[in-house]
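General statements about sequence and structure are easier to judge against a single worked case. No coordinates are needed to read the tokens, only the vocabulary itself. The sequence in question and its structure tokens are set out directly beneath this paragraph.
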Amino acid sequence: MDNKHAFTRSVFDEFLNQFTLSETTLVAYWRSTHRRYLARPHGTSIIPFCAEETFRMAFYSFQRVHRLETDMHCPECLGESDVVICDGCVVAFEKRRLTGRLRPPTMPDEGSEVKEAVQLLSLATLSDTSLSVSKKEAADFRTSLDDWAARAKKHLIKLSLVKDDLDLVAKNGKLGKAIQKLVEEVAALHPLEQGDQRAMHLKFLQELAARSAIFFLIHPQDFKLVAQFVQSRTEVEALRKRAPLFHLLSTAEPLRPVYTVVGLLLLHARQLWKQLVANLRQSRPLSPDELELVSEHDFKGHAWQTTGAIYPDSPVRSRPLYKRIPGDAGMKRLKNLPVIDATRNSDECNKLYSTYGKNGLTGGMMGLWCPHGVCIGAHLMSSAEGRDEVFSALFTRRKKAPNIVIYDFSCQLGPYCWIRAPEYFAETRFYVDQLHSYNHTDCAKSAQWASAVRADPDLKRINTSLAETAHATLRRIKKSISYMLEMHAILFLWVSIQLFNRRKLRKMGHRDRHFPSEIDV
């Protein structure tokens, strides 16, 4: 400032309280305060409140020197949280105010490697490779199973309606024959006398027909336990609690073809995983041309005030480039091309990503939250939310991947991560949160949080809507941020996150060493 103005801290603390409790903008607060100064009792000296621009400059200067920060580590998690809840929030500013200095975790740097063999593979349970047929035949087969299960639910079992489709695939591969045999035996079950067993097998067939990755059904961490299940043909307790599909199979006695189908799916899953890991091993450093592109975007060592990446620790690794993946987000960002993750194919669910970059605004914020409700990382997005935001945030900022990731697009985030970093995410299970799972009609139930809780009731303690609760607070600054400069938007977001974390820490009985008790959210 210019030494002509003096402000008490209470003026700024009052504004912090107001903009985190309601949608009070800086201009609205200044006007309210200005009018209070003018409305003093008659006879007292009238010293007008400062000009709007002066107050704006003073507030931002105060926040730069104010020791408001928490360390963004949850003391209850004791290190890196095993469970991470991810979600994007619509707190965005105008794209025309972008300076080109935002550096989210999605941006490659000089330490990035080029993964030369990583490529898109179909991870669908019933794909052309698992069934040994053409892509069209695989799609038809999956649809016929789905239709048959729907009809069977209404007690209209007519196997002949789908027999031609089943025969078409069965003659080409072992998995098709095994599924055809299973369908025939399920059709023979009596709807009333064997209702529970029949219902369980219908749900099992629907899991097979779902448009989800096979690793949601048979997770790489469970390969040995699944092999034990197939060989012993008995329930495996550890597997039942860890894998929703096998919890389903424990609710009634499986028919013999189930074991054959699971065994063949296990073989396919192992082959896929082996291919993913082998593809990962082929890498090289950046070429001179690629290094030149990186150097144009190098803001290494810059603080969050510039980069918009609000994380407690420095990056532990760099985001790779994937040359064989068409439209790789990392390469697009280096070339200043727009990145919009809203594409899909027949193996993905029908629920698409919300487009935050509407009305000329940036993509909003991506936040990571621990199960106790503490924000453990966030960054501003220049374009709409996508899977790369979560993938890069986890991959570059955490030494070890979490055991569980909860996200409203986990059905697509899982395959995205397993293809690009299979070794890093080998022990990670992805689930769609409870609130959004009802919209994922084409996804396997094994990818949904409700199924995980049924398998392991201990998971009930985790509130998967924590991020939504936090966003209810952050949305209060939506209006303010929408017209701000980039650097002010970053600062406002940072202040809101720190105040939110303080509230959580105080409720848990923890006090940060810089904890102003008069500030609340």
Observations:
- The longest strand covers residues 83-89.
- The chain has a mean pLDDT of 85.
- The radius of gyration is 27 Å.
